């Protein structure tokens, strides 16, 4: 027998469509207004801070300190930096001011740094003269690279440096100074003198160097008129060899024009006023 039961709505599955989730954040107009106001306030603070920094006396260059200089005076360095004082430290182009210092023939390297309040510290490394180059009738200080530093004058009289002859390029007016220097000859002279730096006993005795022949440097020692031909290498060894042999050589040849030490144990001696060479056994 069929029994009909009433439908119970409590057991019906509700047909409900789930709500879609909203993506992103919901920002009210009020919050947007607050954010805009905060941005404007922050920009105002940054602008005022920047204006304060740019006008602050602590950031205006009022002092220049210099160290590392010996030959070039502080006054000369400050004059090369003319216009630096009074500028804002934050806006300085330090590379540009460094380039002005490097324009000096005495300055090999330079460094600048900001030091609060209002100070720029300058550190100088100078070019070191190793000889006095003779170009025509003018003497110049020559550095370890063979470059001309400055014209030799009374303010350099305390420098005890050898005179270097034969630096000029053939056919070039020696009055051109550094432009007249032959780089190959200058290199030979600087290699010779630099090689003697480890032998101050020898370096201190060198009075004159002649590099007219790029393959054969000639050295004259203090209190000795003999021309010592040392070639283009083994400079210290050959000079020491001459010093060791000089007493014996002068017993055989009292007046020596030159001694040629380029051929190992064979030493060639030319007497003054003679057109011939006398070989001597260096052993």
Note the main attributes of this structure:
283 residues; alpha/beta; Ubiquitin-like (UB roll); Rossmann fold; 2 domains; ten-stranded mixed beta sheet; three-stranded mixed beta sheet; 13 strands; 28% strand
Classified by CATH, the class of the largest domain is Alpha Beta
Domain module tally = 2
In which range does the helix fraction lie? 25-40%
Quote the beta fraction: 25-35%
Describe the structure.
By secondary structure, the chain is of the alpha/beta class. The chain folds into 2 domains: 68 residues, membrane protein fhac (Ubiquitin-like (UB roll)), CATH 3.10.20.310; 153 residues, Rossmann fold (3-Layer(aba) Sandwich). The model has no long low-confidence stretch (mean pLDDT 85). It has 6 helices and 13 strands. The N and C termini lie far apart (146 Å). Strand 10, helix 6 and strand 11 form a beta-alpha-beta unit. The strands form 2 sheets. Strands 6-5-4-7-8-9-10-11-12-13 form a 10-stranded mixed sheet, with helices on one face. Strands 1-3-2 form a 3-stranded mixed sheet, with helices on one face.
Give me the secondary-structure topology.
Blueprint: H1 29-55, E1 63-67, H2 74-80, H3 94-102, E2 107-115, E3 119-126, E4 129-135, E5 138-143, E6 148-151, E7 163-165, H4 183-195, H5 200-203, E8 206-213, E9 216-221, E10 227-231, H6 235-252, E11 256-263, E12 266-271, E13 278-281
Parallel strand pairs: 1-3, 4-7, 7-8, 10-11
Antiparallel strand pairs: 2-3, 4-5, 5-6, 8-9, 9-10, 11-12, 12-13
């Amino acid at each position: 027998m069929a029994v009909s039961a009433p439908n119970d709505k409590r057991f019906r599955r509700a047909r409900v469509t789930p709500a879609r989730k909203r993506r992103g954040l919901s920002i009210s107009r009020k919050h947007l207004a607050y954010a805009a106001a905060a941005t404007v306030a922050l920009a105002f603070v940054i602008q005022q801070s920047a204006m304060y920094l740019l006008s602050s006396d602590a950031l205006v260059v009022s002092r220049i300190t210099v160290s590392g200089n010996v030959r070039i005076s502080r006054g000369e360095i400050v004059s090369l930096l003319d216009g630096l004082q009074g500028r804002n430290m934050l806006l300085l182009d330090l590379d540009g001011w460094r380039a002005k210092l490097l324009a000096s023939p005495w300055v090999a390297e330079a460094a600048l740094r900001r030091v609060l309040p209002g100070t720029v510290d300058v550190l100088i490394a100078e070019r070191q003269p190793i000889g006095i180059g003779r170009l025509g009738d003018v003497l110049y200080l020559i550095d370890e690279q063979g470059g001309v530093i400055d014209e030799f004058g009374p303010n350099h009289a305390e420098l005890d440096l050898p005179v270097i002859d034969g630096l000029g390029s053939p056919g070039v007016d020696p009055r051109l100074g550094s432009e007249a220097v032959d780089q190959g000859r200058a290199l030979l002279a600087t290699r010779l003198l630099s090689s003697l730096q480890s032998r101050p006993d020898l370096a201190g005795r060198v009075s004159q160097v002649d590099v007219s022949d790029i393959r054969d440097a000639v050295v004259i020692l203090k209190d000795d008129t003999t021309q010592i031909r040392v070639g283009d290498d083994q400079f210290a060894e050959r000079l020491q060899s001459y010093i060791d042999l000089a007493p014996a050589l002068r017993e055989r040849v009292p007046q020596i024009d030159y001694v040629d030490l380029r051929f190992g144990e064979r030493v060639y001696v030319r007497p003054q006023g003679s057109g011939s060479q006398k070989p001597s056994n260096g052993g």
